[in-house]
Write a structure and sequence with these properties.
Blueprint: E1 2-9, H1 29-44, E2 51-55, H2 58-66, E3 76-79, H3 87-95, E4 102-107, H4 111-120, E5 131-137, E6 140-147
Parallel strand pairs: 1-4, 2-3, 2-4
Antiparallel strand pairs: 1-5, 5-6
Helix pairs in contact: 1-2
């Protein structure tokens, strides 16, 4: 079995406003700037997803939208269950990835970091708009690479 998973933490969002529901927080200027940069790097590295699963929150949907036109034709679903998901929920998405495909999950921390650690055994910090490429072979997942806007030129 050979599957790939891209774990993308949503881009930087506005500060929490006590009058605004967390689910409805939008991206800020930094998030809108970083998403396209990370998207270009994902494509430059050949991490092209076959399918994208996105949390239903405004900031994750805006992260998806700001990735750019290169991802507009990729099949996708916006899923309530990916909003602040449990590890079990994330693992159920991972288990459903078909063989020989690449799936992207756009979600939140701490879930992104917990999923990365559970699959790879490596504890890594995923700042906003960070993307991790995971690969599974023979039932074992490993971290191939982790990119973040801060490491892009």
């Amino acid at each position: 079995m050979n599957r790939r998973l891209i774990i993308l933490r949503h881009a930087n969002s506005s500060k929490h406003d006590p009058n605004q529901v967390d689910h409805d927080r939008p991206l800020d200027e930094t998030g809108l700037r970083d998403s396209p940069r990370v998207a270009r790097e994902i494509l430059n590295r050949g991490w092209n997803p076959d399918y994208i699963s996105v949390s239903s929150s405004l900031r994750t949907v805006q992260t998806l939208e700001s990735l750019g036109t290169e991802f507009s034709e990729t099949p996708k679903s916006i899923e309530q269950r990916l909003y602040l998901p449990s590890l079990e929920t994330l693992l159920s998405v991972v288990e459903s990835i078909p063989e020989n495909t690449t799936q992207m999950i756009i979600s939140h921390n701490p879930g992104c970091e917990i999923l990365l650690e559970k699959l790879s055994g490596e504890l890594r910090v995923m700042t906003t708009a960070s993307a991790a490429l995971m690969m599974e072979r023979n039932g074992r997942w490993r971290l191939i690479n982790l990119i973040s806007p801060k490491n892009l030129g």
